[in-house]
Specification:
By secondary structure, the chain is of the alpha/beta class. It has 5 helices and 4 strands. The protein is globular.
């Protein structure tokens, strides 16, 4: 099912009415167990209209973009995003740190294993990844 910008705005309105302070916009699943990689162009075309609409309709809202791609991050920040949520811990794209620094943007850096596994201590496994 293809979602529209209007769908996103309706969902955002409900969230804002419920008291959220930040909305995280993603153009593709970044869950390590999903094989949902799309092109950078497609990711940009999915997130930019939503970010622009959210910024227009909710100017005080903090908008995060869930991406590990520097081009998506750059265009999202230019469109009004405030935060980059990088699930690769800045390891997925060598230009991501530069983009974040150039925009003086906030960043959420997730640590994750390159190959998720069961057992033992997840913190030790992640640090060693």
């Amino acid at each position: 099912m293809r979602r529209t910008v209007d769908d996103a705005l309706k969902a955002a309105e409900a969230m804002v009415s419920g008291g959220v302070d930040i909305i995280d916009v993603g153009g593709m699943s970044t869950a390590p167990y999903n094989k949902t990689v799309i092109s950078v162009d497609e990711e940009v075309s999915r997130v930019l209209p939503v970010i622009k609409a959210l910024r227009r309709e909710f100017p005080e809202l903090t908008i995060s973009v869930d991406t590990f791609r520097s081009r998506v991050a750059e265009e999202a920040l230019n469109a009004g995003a405030d935060v980059i949520n990088d699930v690769t811990g800045l390891k997925g794209d060598g230009d991501m740190a530069r983009v974040i620094s150039n925009h003086q943007a906030s960043v959420i850096i997730m640590a994750r294993e390159r190959r998720p596994s069961q057992g033992s201590d997840p913190i030790s496994r992640t640090i060693g990844a």
